[in-house]
Amino acid sequence: MEYLAFTISAAVLFIFFNIFYLIARMRDNYSVVDIAWGGGPALVALVLFITFYFGEGVFYPAAAVLSLFILLWGGRLAGHIGARNAGKKEDFRYRAMRKNWGRRHYLHAYVKVYLFQGVLSFILILPLTLSYHFGTETLSPLGFVLLVIGAIIWFIGFYFEAVSDAELGDFKANPKNRGKIIQTGLWRYSRHPNYFGETVLWWGVFIMSLGILNVADLELWSFVGLISPLMITLLLLFVSGVPLLEKKYKDDPAYQAYAAKTSIFIPRKPRKLSSKK
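^ that's the sequence the OP posted. Answer follows.
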């Protein structure tokens, strides 16, 4: 099949998000889709590697590395969100959506949340899909350099996301911190270090994907995967990530004091606030 990698990605994500929608309906909790955000791409990465390595009998080095990294990212994220949400009520975002949608919320949720996130996931993993579609069993010197650079960037992003998630989890687990705002660790330098980390690691994935594509000849296909990191950057910065949380805490004095000295996204040293007597 000429477009095997694209077909597999689309089919796996469609089935996966439909299964999660059924789970959400049975639990009457649309929040489970947050687990699918990491789980879907991770499953695609695994299925693509198995299909091409065991089914087609080919090994694409850069694509295999991408599969491993996306599997690590998605597995950790899905596990983290699953553990965090276990036994809890539906997240405030989905409660608000349910209220706005009224009696036909189940149909709106299926199309606007589950199918839509499936489409976003397909776009997100385009660098991986393209790497298998245009796979080669050897890497050029330039390709190897891009693979290494991308991997370093990915590790930086993964560190920020994983460590900040762990710090926040430990902070919330301490009853003494109830009602307080975390301002330690990576959260001292950014109000959203986990979102910053996720954005950075997907830029790393894109750069790694260039290692297997014909970037030296500036082929158009080499840069189609650029849609992936651009999309996640725009989503987290302007749509579903940072804006929602900033809006949630807009009337919280403690958070606003924290925001006055702390970068909203890119980590940097906290600002010193001038005190007025």
